[in-house]
Structures are given as C-alpha cells and as structure tokens.
Amino acid sequence: MPWSDGSYKIKKVISIGTVSELTGLSERQIRYYEERKLIFPERSKTGIRKYSFQDVETLIEIANQLEEGVLTHEIRKELKRREQLIDPKVVRNSLLQGQLNAHFK
To answer: Which residues form the HTH merR-type domain (predicted)?
Structure first.
C-alpha cells in the first residue's frame, strides 16, 4: 500500500474552505490561528493556503484548548515542544548520541 506509512497526513493539499467545513471553524478563525503562529499552511504559486490532514487535527485541538481557556501563547509553546520531540534531526541526533554512549561505556 502506497499510503500505509501515514505520509498522506502531512501532504498540504486541502483548501481553507474545506478545512473550515471539516473543523467547523470559520476561515477568519483559521487565518487568525496562522497569524498567532499556531498553524503553518503552505502557499500555492497563486497565494492560496493549503493545509494537511495533520493541520486539520491541530486546528481542532487548538479550538478545543481555546474553548477551555488556554491562551494562544501557551498553545504555541506546547506545539513547538511537541514539534521538537518529533523533529527528525532531534530524533537522529538522540539516536546517534545513544549509540556513541553505548559504544564508549
């Protein structure tokens, strides 16, 4: 199966209108979350925002947290922390460090 690795979730192909329908958020709310650096759509050559399924999930999570009273800067901090945990460079460096530690002990 070509998509069994879940890579389809990160492909930015969804328009803001479709994201609005999927999440129940207005286009204005989605653009506001982008302004607050909570979500990072890609732009087509003509400037149209494109989102991924992962972005849709993140937007729903953001909306739920805001509804619970969490502030946008707190959400941004958490998203950044989470992103660093799964950053391939960080993971690779961590694995290499572990291998070096095991080799020299």
So the answer is: 13-81
